[in-house]
Amino acid sequence: AEPGPGDQRSRLDDRRGRTRAPGPARGARGTDLARAEYAAAPLSTLYLCGVGNAEGIRLALRVNEALSRWQRIVLLDDDTATHGMVKLGLPVSGAFDLLAQADARSDAVVNLVTRTTQGRERARERIAAFGVPFASLVHPGVDVFGAELDAGVTVYHAASIGAESRLGDASVVLVGGVVGHGAQVGAGCVIAPGAV
Fold first, then answer.
1. DSSP 105-123
2. N or C: which end of the chain has fewer CB within 10 A?
3. Distances (CA, A) of 66 to 36, 114, 134
4. For residue 17, what pLDDT is reported?
5. Are 146 and 129 in contact (CB under 8 A)?
6. What is the 8-class DSSP label of residue 142?
7. Per DSSP, which regions of the chain are E strands?
8. What's the rounded mean pLDDT across residues 74-93?
9. C-alpha to C-alpha distance for 94 and 63, rounded to whole angstroms
């Protein structure tokens, strides 16, 4: 069931739309509730697309370590030169085409392409064609209390997400990026490391 207008439960599962950390009236930290929801419904496989982003791989491993969200993590990249390489202990299994084997009912995917917004959008379109839902990755140490995160967002460690801010669909806040209180970040945006 979708949350009603008065429902402030935290949502980090993109299958249900936006992420909303609970407001002050609940008296609970949004990240704590998100951890509980993640742990309650583990997905089987997380596919990470774009292995040039080692920080993104580390983020996925840290999120899974904290929340036990996925049974396995699979690395994919369309650059055949990366196939068979090992990144942070995980082998690169092949091209994005392997998403055709994914189960859209239980698996999820994250687009780790962040070098340019154009490249990120091209990768997102290619990945979306396989019908596997996009997951959000939010580092467990980042406080998102009072912020609104749309589907498929990625928030790296040491980022600061201000209260009453909003991150649009598929946006990324890289290591140390700052989104001030009340700020609105559009869909597909990339906040560079240390940027405000």
1. TT-EEEE---S-HHHHHHH
2. N
3. 11, 24, 19
4. 41
5. no
6. S
7. 19-20, 43-49, 70-76, 86-87, 90-94, 108-111, 137-138, 148-149, 154-155, 160-161, 166-167, 172-173, 178-179, 184-185, 190-191
8. 97
9. 23
Name the one residue in this structure whose structure tokens are 């089987």.
44
Compute the mean pLDDT over every residue in the chain, rounded to the nearest whole number. Answer: 84
pLDDT at 42: 58
Q: Residue 12 pLDDT more than 80?
A: no
Q: Are the beta carbons of 144 and 156 closer than 8 angstroms?
A: no
Q: Which of 130, 143, 124 lies closest to 189, judged by CA?
A: 124
Angle (CA) 51 166 185, round 5°: 60
Closest CA to 143 of 186, 181, 196, 113: 181
Side-by-side strand order, sheet with 70-76: 86-87, 90-94, 70-76, 43-49, 108-111
